Amino acid sequence: MQILLRKDHESLGKAGEVVNVSTGFARNYLFPRKIATPVTADNLQRLEAEKRRAQREAEKRHQAIVEAGKRLEAISCTIAAQATETGTLFGSVGAAQIAAALRQEGFEVPEDAVRLEHPIKETGVYAIEIQLAPDVVAATRIWVVAD
User: Residue 138 and residue 147: Cα distance in Å, rounded?
Assistant: First the structure.
């Protein structure tokens, strides 16, 4: 029996593919769990419409990420840390503190999105890259000042 996969299935294939399975497997497992549907012209059209809708939503999300990246590049954050008179910090400023400072500015940035070569150990101004998506990187400025 030929079926149209609505969802990805590890042993059958990706969503949108037409595959051959046994009739019992389709009727007893795939159809009730809405993993697949019978191959009909109506179901193929519905699947294509779902794909187009999902693609439009993905494009909107990506555009929102790009806009957030532009807004992120326009701001700078200040992080206060204990330091000596020469500007050397007693500890260091890492990705967690930078992500927390960006959250205070209104940006929900996960800690692993902050790209640091090494922790910041001196006061000053630093350019920090934030990886918002695989193809969207925003550079922002961080001011580390003595507390």
Answer: 27
